[in-house]
């Protein structure tokens, strides 16, 4: 299981990786930070980039914060980070 910490920016023009923020991947999300929409968008985006089903990606810490810890089943840390940044 991979564990990644990402920085999220909800309400962006498009959903994408926007480099690094304090050494962590910065994910810009088109979804607004309302009713969990940004969290759901983050899970879908990370699952798609890592090539795993959405059910294998979950937020383990930071549900209401911009800094989120994700657990991704089926990948190790290096593979998940590479897929997210290079995907």
Automatic annotation (TrEMBL):
UniProt-recorded name of the protein: UPF0235 protein A9O67_05935
Species: Tepidimonas fonticaldi
SUPFAM superfamilies: YggU-like
SMART domains: DUF167 (SM01152)
PANTHER family named in the record: UPF0235 PROTEIN C15ORF40 (PTHR13420)
NCBIfam families for the chain: DUF167 family protein
Family: Belongs to the UPF0235 family.
Pfam family, one: DUF167
A GO-annotated cellular component: cytoplasm
């Amino acid at each position: 299981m991979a564990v990644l910490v990402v920085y999220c920016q909800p309400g962006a023009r498009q959903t994408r990786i926007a480099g690094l923020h304090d050494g962590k991947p910065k994910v810009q999300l088109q979804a607004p930070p309302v009713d969990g929409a940004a969290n759901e968008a983050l899970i879908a985006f990370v699952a798609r980039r890592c090539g795993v089903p959405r059910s294998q990606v979950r937020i383990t810490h930071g549900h209401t914060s911009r800094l989120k810890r994700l657990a991704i089943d089926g990948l190790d840390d290096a593979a998940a980070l590479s897929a997210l940044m290079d995907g």
